[in-house]
Amino acid sequence: MSFSPADQDRITHIFFPHLKRKTQEVLEAGGRFVYYTTAETATCILTNKQIWMRNTTTMNDYSEVDHGFNCLNASYNAAPGNIFNATLNACFPGLADEVKDFFNGWWPSIRQDTFIACVSEHLPEEDQHGRLSMWRAYGGQAGVALVINGAVMFSKSNTLNVFSSPINYLNPDAFAAQFEQIAKNMESEVDFIKSLGKEAVKQIVFIMLRFAVLCTKHPGFHEEREWRNVASPKMHPTDHATLGVEIIRGTPQPVLKLNLQNNPEKGLVGLAIPDLLDRIIIGPCEFPQVICSAFLKLLIDAEVPEPEKKIIVSDIPLRKL
């Protein structure tokens, strides 16, 4: 699908208001994200120039995909869904059933063939120390935060076929309220929606429903400020990732390995490590200076300019048990 910038902005306003709002917030805060992980994993990323995207069936987040589906299903079969389907049919008779059948047809693949890599919004005030709750959740005994420039996540190029979306932290009632608002947005824009054409609208609505399922989490996780980078190789094949099998915490599992390389000929820039990496924050640990020295060597090997300026040791004190 290809739309003018004005039409694309209008589509986002109607169908993806949360994405529009969160994108603006991130850009106003500097447009950066952060990947909290262990020093071991961060070393692998910089050495191999890859990030592994995990299948949702093997992640902690699998139950959260169920949470998103349950929220959508409850809203779809209640008043918000009635408004939503009536508006679709007002635009194109019979479209509501076509969308439902299309989504249900792809649902097994959405559950089984979705790979994600999660990052968190990074705020300027976290530059020196990171976020304590994220160190505790993801840093292990030696945590590292890779702060990244988010330009590639907002790129207009579809070459990568990896799509970024903010998490929406909602309980079923809050989800229903937002779903109803989208339905009302559609009601007020029927003529514009008709102008897009039936097949385009069908695809847009499918994307909306898919990401509503994949990117809705319980509100108890809201402080993570998470965004998900989503790939579905069967639905959207990509030349920039390879599917392999790795053993993670004792479990063999499929992993989609995303190559951190630019492809300027196809409009893909900002993904190579020297462009992508804003800074590294060494988390609370027993040997921060040793880890700092190791990552300096990794940055030199990755040809990152002025690598010594990219590494910060967090000033959060290590709490020993």
Automatic annotation (TrEMBL):
<dbReference type="InterPro" id="IPR021352">
    <property type="entry name" value="DUF2971"/>
</dbReference>
<protein>
    <recommendedName>
        <fullName>DUF2971 domain-containing protein</fullName>
    </recommendedName>
</protein>
<dbReference type="Pfam" id="PF11185">
    <property type="entry name" value="DUF2971"/>
</dbReference>
